[in-house]
Design a protein that fits this description.
Length: 418
């Protein structure tokens, strides 16, 4: 077992002491030490999935980020040791285009591989949480020789990635890691097809979401919701459709704007900001709202921390991704908020929503279908309430935080016993 909090020479000089102390620790908890590696300082779905897992392991783990940002602050706030290994050359590499820039970044990539290996040697298991983390964690494996777990959060197709990246992932998934876990069956199937790995060897562990954060905010009276809306600067009496997620073309916020034209009594609340260089898309949404003449009914809320409260301020939660969603945490959160959910029928969403049982499904990009679904819920509030209630029950059962942490920590422990 390796020590989580010592560095370089300190580790060398104190080696025998650590070994004894660690034996004691091992005896108490029996759990391995873990180094989590994530490429992003931003707060995307993969980072929200890692946050409670790292917090649950904080006594024996650390997180290394390949870029700085608000994710670091969030981890630190939960008491998880975090360090940032940012390399300017490496951070310019983008998922869609691995061209000349990647060649120029080779010295930076080698530096980063060595730096990751140095950190990794101090832990029992290395847990890779994103694609760039996969690259550095897998390529440094011959140097650190630790068991490597990769948590796949992506749909591995051309809709989301460039050819070169798919090729790299195909080989690293086959030969660079010891275990793969996927966040949904949909993600697992695309990786299985890409890399020729049997589906049975990619277990699916969906994200668990803390239902207590949603339950803590009970709004039994209409007045409570009006107060929430006042706090958020939203119209108290309007019928509000909330769309949650970063502003990015594939998340389809433009589809919701198009739908709004045919829903004159509905307001749209867009919660989220462009996280990964999608500023031009965010600007295009404002332009689109102006051109369509719906700007007075669109509320750009930006990134918000208190998602349970924002969701509970809505009448319906809509999800409009035009490409298959790997999982769709926001869809699960919508159910936990006790609001009816309308979601795009593709990818991991099909593992959350059962049409007309716990929500409504609409084909991705189908504006008319979205309009009809919103109208259907407005016309039948009892049906909307029934869907919402069933959705909450389902989400609590199928996406519990405890279940997720237990299954993940078991996976890590099994990898350590490799
Ligand atoms: N989120 C947030 N504030 C925002 C917008 C989104 O905290 O303003 C969170 C949201 O609650 C969810 C996550 O970001 O937990 C997005 O995860 P999802 O799986 O929906 O999408 P991804 O970012 O992985 O594509």
């Amino acid at each position: 077992m390796n020590a989580p909090h010592l560095t370089g020479s300190a580790l060398a000089t104190a080696h025998s002491t650590i070994a004894t102390a660690d034996l004691d620790l091992q005896g108490v908890s029996g759990a391995p030490t873990v180094l989590f590696l994530d490429q992003s300082g931003e707060l995307g779905g993969a980072e929200f999935a890692l946050l409670p897992l790292a917090a649950a392991c904080k006594a024996r783990c650390a997180v290394v980020l390949l870029a700085d940002g608000p994710f670091r602050t969030r981890l630190e706030a939960t008491g998880v040791p975090v360090s940032v290994l940012a390399d300017a050359q490496v951070s310019t590499i983008r998922r869609e285009a691995l061209g000349l820039g990647t060649l120029r970044a080779i010295p930076g990539i080698l530096r980063q591989i060595r730096a990751v290996a140095r950190e990794a040697r101090r832990y029992d298991v290395i847990f890779l949480n994103t694609q760039k983390a996969l690259v550095f964690g897998a390529l440094s494996r011959p140097l650190h020789r630790r068991p490597v777990v990769w948590f796949l959060h992506d749909i591995m197709t051309r809709a989301h990635f460039g050819r070169a990246q798919l090729l790299i992932v195909k080989w690293l998934a086959r030969y660079g890691v010891d275990r793969i876990v996927a966040n949904s069956q949909a993600s697992a199937e695309t990786l299985s097809a890409l890399a020729g790995i049997p589906l049975a060897s990619i277990p699916v562990i969906p994200n668990g979401i803390d239902a207590a954060a949603f339950d803590a905010l009970d709004l039994p009276h209409a007045d409570d919701r009006a107060a929430l809306r006042r706090r958020f600067g939203l119209p108290e009496d309007a019928w509000l459709a909330g769309l949650f997620g970063r502003l990015a073309h594939w998340k389809g916020q433009h589809v919701a704007l198009d739908a709004l034209v045919r829903l004159p009594d509905v307001h749209l609340v867009l919660v989220g900001s462009p996280l990964f260089g999608e500023d031009a898309y965010a600007a295009s949404l404002r332009k689109q709202a102006e051109t369509l003449g719906v700007m007075d009914r669109v509320h750009f809320a930006g990134f918000q921390d208190d998602i349970p409260a924002w969701m509970k301020a809505m009448d319906v939660i809509v999800h409009t991704s035009i490409d298959p969603e790997p999982l769709g945490r926001v869809v699960i959160e919508g159910l936990l908020a006790g609001r009816p959910v309308i979601a795009a029928a593709a990818g991991g969403v099909l593992e959350i929503i059962r049409h007309r049982e716990n929500g409504l499904l609409v084909q991705p990009g189908d504006t008319d279908g979205l309009v009809d679904a919103i109208e259907a819920l407005r016309r039948a509030p009892d049906f909307a309430a029934h869907l919402a209630a069933q959705g909450t029950l389902d989400a609590k059962r199928e996406f519990s935080l405890d279940g997720y942490i237990t299954r993940m920590t078991e996976t890590i422990a099994r990898a350590a016993r490799r």
